[in-house]
Write a structure and sequence with these properties.
single chain, Sodium/glucose cotransporter, mainly alpha
Length: 439
């Protein structure tokens, strides 16, 4: 809940307010400062999102997610297309040629140790952060729990993973194109994307994207409110009042959601003062929550006799040491590598406590027969295809692909095909095996 209140929800509000304020030029239109424009947009988005989340519930969030997601993907894909046309002076072919050849090093996703995100982090803290977000984050997994069956839930998550691979097209490539178009003209890096959108999109499409963006911001914010209210109602308030009726629990949840919404609307505008921009703020604060929570969940899955005190000690150890490293010692080691090292140490601490003082009765998951838990028979094949797309994306945006000095080669195409074939075939073999075993 602290993570949502201090970080995720305020960041969603701030980035959304900044984007919409820049796209519609709120400061210029109303003759106010940029700071005032962001405050106004934060409260406008926050109030609308809170009403939607608090009174609409998870079903309203899910329905809005679907519509907004479709619009955002369509509009997001159109942005780099129009930006390439602008780069080519109205000619898509010339713009695309400039994009590929002018600065090939910009197309390299394999970051060195001097880059803001070194590639080595993929195998340390970054992996853990993503496992936390996609595997244990309440606002994500709550959608999975809302599926009508295990099969539908698996389809939904695999589709979400496939859409995630569009990130380079929707987010990263527009940033590179903005560099070509505007260079270092923009003072705040956070403003470059909305500026690009405002300048290159035709006005009708700008309205479509703004509507989709507004919806996506609302969707993110209200889903976080919904999740934090659920966490408080079911995991904090209900254990303290076990006999409470459901209608009263819902009322408590709505009150808590309203309080959280107001707090987030006060916190969000101050993010503009964070050194290093919104991304640096988001990642630094997130480090206090994501890896320790994932660590606790992981140990809980693999060792059923580790006591609750181990989780509390592990959590306290990680948060305190991480805070000291970030704000006091400040070692010359990338913060995600620090998280990776602390993850290993925290796991060892929890396992040692579990060995010394195990629970008398190991935890057993209660089996609930409320939904059909028959798995999707093509889950491994589809997952293999998505994994292949992910690896191929790294290959395309690397010195083996578009970032190489000599340009794209036949060898690059062959490598991509081989990776796709191996991953998909492995998934198909697993589907066939488990289908035969009836698992």
């Amino acid at each position: 809940m602290l993570c949502y209140i201090l970080n995720l929800a305020p960041t969603a509000l701030y980035t959304g307010a900044l984007a919409l304020s820049t796209i519609f030029d709120i400061p210029g239109t109303f003759h106010i400062s940029a700071t005032a424009g962001i405050w106004i947009m934060v409260w406008l988005i926050g109030i609308i999102g809170a009403i939607y989340a608090i009174f609409g519930g998870l079903k309203a969030v899910a329905l809005s997610d679907t519509l907004n997601g479709i619009l955002l993907v369509i509009a997001g894909i159109l942005i780099p297309v129009f930006a390439i046309v602008a780069l080519g002076g109205g000619n898509f072919g010339e713009g695309f040629h400039t994009f590929l050849t002018a600065r090939p090093e910009k197309l390299n996703s394999i970051g060195s140790s001097s880059d803001p995100l070194p590639f080595s982090a993929v195998f340390s803290g970054l992996l853990l952060v993503n496992m936390y977000y996609w595997g244990t984050n309440q606002s994500i997994i709550q959608r999975g729990f809302g599926a009508k069956s295990l099969k539908e839930g698996q389809k939904g998550f695999i589709l979400a993973a496939a859409l995630k691979i569009l990130t380079p097209i929707i987010i990263i490539i527009p940033g590179i194109l903005a560099f070509f178009l505007y260079g270092n003209e923009v003072e705040m890096a956070d403003m470059i994307y909305p500026l690009l959108v405002r300048e290159v999109l035709p006005k009708p499409l700008l309205g479509l994207l703004a509507a989709a963006m507004f919806g996506a911001i609302l969707s993110t914010f209200n889903s976080l409110l919904n999740s934090s209210s659920t966490l408080f109602a079911l995991d904090v308030y209900k254990p303290m009042h076990p006999d409470i009726e459901e209608k009263d629990l819902i009322r408590v949840s709505k009150i808590f959601g309203s309080i959280v919404a107001v707090l987030c609307m006060f916190i969000a505008p101050w993010i503009m003062n964070a050194s290093g921009g919104v991304f640096a703020y988001f990642q630094t604060i997130n480090g206090f929550f994501n890896v320790p929570i994932f660590t606790i969940v992981l140990i809980g899955f693999i060792k059923k006799d580790v006591p609750a005190i181990a989780a509390k000690i592990g959590l306290a150890f990680f948060v305190i040491v991480y805070g000291v490293l970030q704000f006091v010692i400040k070692p010359d080691l990338f913060y995600l590598h620090q998280s990776g090292i602390l993850f290993v140490i925290t796991c060892i601490i929890m396992l040692v406590i579990g060995k010394i003082a195990p629970q008398k009765t190991p935890f057993a998951m209660e089996k609930v027969e409320d939904v059909d838990v028959t798995p999707w028979k093509y889950r491994f094949t589809a997952s293999g295809a998505v994994i292949a797309l992910m690896i191929d994306t790294y290959v395309i945006f690397s010195p083996l692909g578009l970032a190489q000095a000599g340009g794209w080669t036949a060898g690059s195409t062959a490598l991509i095909a081989v990776i796709a074939g191996i991953c998909t075939a492995a998934g198909f073999a697993l589907d066939k095996r488990y289908s035969q075993e009836g698992v």
